[in-house]
Amino acid sequence: MKPGPLRRLAILLIFVVVVFGIGGVVSQIWTNFLWYKEVGQTEVFWTPIWARTVLTVVAGVIFFAIFYGSLWLARKLSPRFRPVRAQEGEEVYDLPQRRRWPGRLMLIVSIVLALVVGIAYSSKWQQILLFFNHGTAGYKDPIFHRDAAFFMFTLPMWKLAIDFVGIALLLTFVATVFTYVVDRAMVMSARNRVTLAPHVKAHLSVILAIAMVAKAGDYMIQSWSLAFSKRGVVAGPSYTDVHASLPVLHFLAVVALLAAVIFLANIRYRGWRLPAIAIALMFLTWALAGKAYPAIVQQYRVSPNEITKESTYIANNIEATRVGFGLDKIQSVSYPANADLTVASANANWPTLQNVRLWEPRPALDIYNQNQGLRLYYTFKDVDVDRYTIDGQLREVLISARELDQNQLQPQAKTWVNEHLTYTHGYGAVVSPVNESTSEGPELFIKDIPPVSSTSLKIAKPQIYYGEVGNSFVVVKTTSPEFDYPAGDKNVNSQYQGTGGVPVGSKLRQFAFSFRFATARLFFSSSLTKDSRVMYRRTIEERVQALAPFLQYDKDPYLVIRDDGSLVWMWDAYTTSSRFPNSQPQPNGTNYMRNPIKVVIDAYNGNVTFYQVDTTDVIANAWGKVYPGLFTPGDQMPADLRKHMRYPEDYYTTQAQVLTLYHMSDPQIFYNKEDAWEIPKELYGNGKDEIPVVPYYQMLALPGSDTPEFALLQPFAPLSKKNMTSLMVARQDGANYGKLTLLDLPKDKLVFGPSQVEARISSDPTISAQLTLWDQSGSQVIRGNLLVVPVGDAMMYFEPLYLQASQNPIPNLAEVIVVYSDQVVMAPTLEGALQKIFGAQIGPTTSTTGGTTSTSGGSTTTTIPGGTTTTTVPPTTTTTTPGGPTTSTTLGTTQQALVAQANQHYQAAIAAQKAGDWAEYGRQIDELGKVLAALETLGK
User: Are 203 and 176 in contact (CB under 8 A)?
Assistant: First the structure.
């Protein structure tokens, strides 16, 4: 091939590479802008761009002015004649100086360095914008008497400015000296000393004087940074910091300022002796007073009397840490943990007992995927706990979204059309109560496709286009039918009717998105119309991270069914900092944490709303000013969303970990760790693995209240002990949302902790024998979480047991273990276990008098001749026969309850016989006769 064609081919290849490269960059920027426009947050797109640009220019110009200005002045001040050595060492200027390095090179170097420095400092745009937009935190540091916002926003900004000045002056000084050397304005004298022209000396002295002023500022920053000191027993200024390090740093700042004055004064004096003395004094002060003196004070004054010297600073740390992690307003309540529950008091607390969580998210997830996946491409990624008003009652439920996972499609089905035009969305959700079971697993309030509901809770818009599972992009409103849901052997198709996605009807946009997604099929597809829309960033994580990457997010977003039947995701977001003064940092460095933001993502349209529910958080307030319009005031959250706000687990877990030490307010007790706590352990899974008790959601009525509410609970145990010492409750309903209550347990009596209860369960002969029997039969026993639940003034413990057959991977609820006082019982149902505990059925009751059964308010009470026995039955319909008894349509259930009571009286009679208590034996036999008579009456 001739050179001409080769060159043309090379030019063509370069042209193609350049076009595609530029096209890729332009398309990425443009399509990003279109996405931010779709979600209504173009401010989030433009703010980083203009902020980086402005900072690059400002930092670059300032650096250029310092650097190039000094070099330009150096060239101007360089003498026109170079100095030569005289015999006596005096300077004589004779030869013309013309060996100056090129001015253009100096300019180019200055521009390049200014550009590099400007780009480097543009990455600090968030820190700078927060500095200009922050308010006050409402907490004043007790040592420096400054608001916490000073340490969180102002101090980092000053540090950034000092570092910038230091770097600029260092590079400028080196380059200026180099310029003078090249221009021969600095030479060696006959005595091997550097000889400077007077103007040169003045120039360098000014640079060094400014550097000393910057160093004085650095010493002041170091003094304020003692707010994060780790020298003492706890974080924050210690006795040594306040009485030794702080005065030394202030003295060093004064010395640095004096050195600056000396450098300026030295312009009129020969030599560098005075500046050298000042610098030497500063160095010696730093080495001796700055390092040695604090160490001596710590060793000989503090260590022998540490608790006395550090008490004030420990108290400061306790206060700041509580504020930093939102524990300063926690309310402590004495809780008696009595063992005096009666049938009446247990019935009064039936709303709490009724909502004890028997089904956990982990086994429920396995069952959902097995029984409700329905097709191989549907998946349930996570199961969440929430509460809904169902048929007039507030119920605790499990909920999980049925999402579409394209990775589960058969290989032959993974075509471009299927992945991007056909299989576009998931469908519906599964909802089940936490405490009801069937032979196939949890009772399902909402199930199947299309969603079938057995209660008042309905799903009207089941399509899920945005969720936890998603692929790169899909295109909707095309001529290609979208798969909606399977119906027997056929598929039901649909077309998207919402506003989600970016319009992609024009060829220009199709071309841009083809570049973005690296596929030409999008451009050449004949299925696209003028109304087509492309959906990308379809996972909720991608969407929130693109809008607010400066927030941290809880590990567990959850699905919510709104009152109108639509589906949304709710996700808790956090603000964190490592610069809250005096606060104790956690292992990840965080010493401040808040949950001011609740993110709501529409599962159908993809709209993202950041509700700011905490207006006191200084970080969220600052970001709200950086991005006006990004946060929506929390009081604008619709009521049907507000009632599903949850206290987030990650935040709660962090608070619980902090509280293990920071519940102690007395500095001496804190110092000695006399009352330190820990998160207790429980047995989980195979019954051999001990894990820390994780926080759990529970419906309960708190002490002093008859109204059940949704709460998050975490028990505590004394450090290295097994008993329980406290229970933290996070309230979540209505005006009480976010309030923390600490139930303090008596210290003068034993309250069993989770590990002690687990040991009692494992050692119970009946339970142990049953577990052994199951293991020998080849079934796997799965021990669920142990739930500690306050019921009235008593503490009760609940643990579900799941059984998973070797040939069937689906776990099922086999038994419920209830522990109360000195009783450990196991039964197939919670009601059965409670009956064993209290000797009677607990809950709604049915009444029969003279062989008649009546129902009132959905509950039934059976009155046996000669006495009254309560039995729990579901709401029944009664039929009254003229002249005859009233009979229930649920006689089988009533009979079962009476049989259970008969067995209970029989077992009690046998126990009394063995104990030789013949009076009790006779009473139990009489009660048994009454129950048998009632059974006979019901059977007629």
Answer: yes
